[in-house]
Every structure is written in C-alpha cells, then in structure tokens.
Amino acid sequence: MIELFSANTPNGWKISIMLEEIGYEYKVTKVDLGNDEQFKTDFLKISPFGKIPVIIDHENNESIFESGAILMYLADKSGKLYDHKDRLVINQWLMAQMGTVGPMIGQHHQFHHYNPGKSDFGEERYFKIAKRLYGELDNRLKDSKFLAGSKYTIADIATWPWMARHEWHDIGLKNYKNLSRWYLEIAEREAVIKGFNFMDKDLIIPKP
Ligand SMILES: N[C@@H](CCC(=O)N[C@@H](CS)C(=O)NCC(=O)O)C(=O)O
C-alpha cells in the first residue's frame, strides 16, 4: 500500500492522479501547509525540504520525496506511462515541468493570485513568464498530441495540474487552441477527475 502525504495543490494532484491512473490502493495523509505541518520533525525525516508530496511505499518501506521522482518510481513499479523506449523525450518534458513550468507558474501564483499589489516587478515578471510558457506549451502541442509525443505519459501528469489553476493565471487558456485541446482531453480521464478532487470532493476541474 502507498501512503501519500499531500495537500490540495498542483504538486499534490500530480501524485493522486498518477495513483488513480495506475490503479493502486493508497491512503492519504493530509499535511496542513497553512499550519506549518510540513516543518514537523517527523515529516522532515521523509521530506528534507519540508514539501509535499511524499510517498511511503509500505510494501518495501521506501519513502520518496520530489514529485518527479515519485512519478518515475510509480511508473517503474507499475510499468505504466513511462515507456522505456520513449524515456529520453519523456524525461525532457518531465524535467521542463519540474525545473521551469512549476516553479515559474508557482511564482505567478505568489505575486498575481496571493499577493497582488505587493510588488509590481514580481507581478509583471512572472505574468510575462507564465504567458510565454502558455505559448511555448501551445506550440509544442501543435505538432504533438501529448507533451512527449503520441502517448499520454508522466510528463503530462506532471504538467496538467498547473494548467488546472488557469483561472488564477488570467492568461486566457481558451485562446491557446492546442493547449486547450490537450487540457480538455486529459480533464476527461476518469483517473484525472478522481485524482483532482482527492481531498475535496466538491472540487470541479475548471473549463478553459
Ligand atoms: N519540487 C517539489 C516542489 C514541491 C512544493 O513546492 N510543494 C509545495 C506545495 S505545492 C509545498 O509543500 N509548500 C510548502 C512550503 O514550501 O512550505 C516537488 O515537485 O515535489
């Protein structure tokens, strides 16, 4: 059994969606970020940077932090969504999410959504970067059905939850035809619907 330490955020959704996709039984342990539970001594033992998500695989007692590493672990364990022959391209789009899409859009959330009016520089900088990312993802998805090619993979599972916050971005997802097509196709998957509202049953995936 997998124990998922998580919260209701894009990085959290990545792993609940993956667990639903591979059909694993899992138990969710909520980490209350607003109350700094991520900095408790016991949690820091399995998450050295005090971040969710983390999993413990109770079959072998392995604990894993960092969502990209967790996705790779679960994909390897289940033999799903990370085809060996496509790994070079999957890794690139997965790492692009981990190193660019998530951190940059995360900053856009901080300045534009959570703290508007606190820093013009921060708001403008990350709005511009997030908008550019929409265009770059749209461009990729013009020629490619999914991020890493013709198949849905862990690269899509890592990236989609960030776009599921598009209402916070004020960029206008519907104006990005290819990105919207990709977003909607993934939004219809049963595993994505279940994984998205793993902590809040009333949460509905926002339309573009
Ligand atoms: N690179 C990490 C980022 C994880 C991350 O930033 N998690 C956020 C929630 S989305 C968090 O735990 N924040 C708590 C904090 O920074 O105090 C991953 O992908 O797992």
Q: Could you characterize the architecture of this molecule?
A:
- The chain is α+β, with helices and mostly antiparallel strands.
- It folds into two domains: 2-81, Glutaredoxin (3-Layer(aba) Sandwich), CATH 3.40.30; 84-189, Glutathione S-transferase Yfyf (Class Pi), Chain A, domain 2 (Up-down Bundle), CATH 1.20.1050.10.
- Helix content is 55%, strand content 9%.
- The chain contains nine helices and four strands, in the order βαβαββααααααα.
- A four-stranded mixed sheet has the order 2-1-3-4, covered by helices on one side.
- Helix 1 (10-22) packs parallel to helix 3.
- The longest helix has 28 residues, at 87-114.
- The structure holds glutathione (GSH).
- Glutathione is lined by residues 7, 9, 11, 33, 38, 50-53, 66-67, 98.
- Residues 7, 9, 11, 33, 38, 50-53, 66-67, 98 line the site of glutathione.
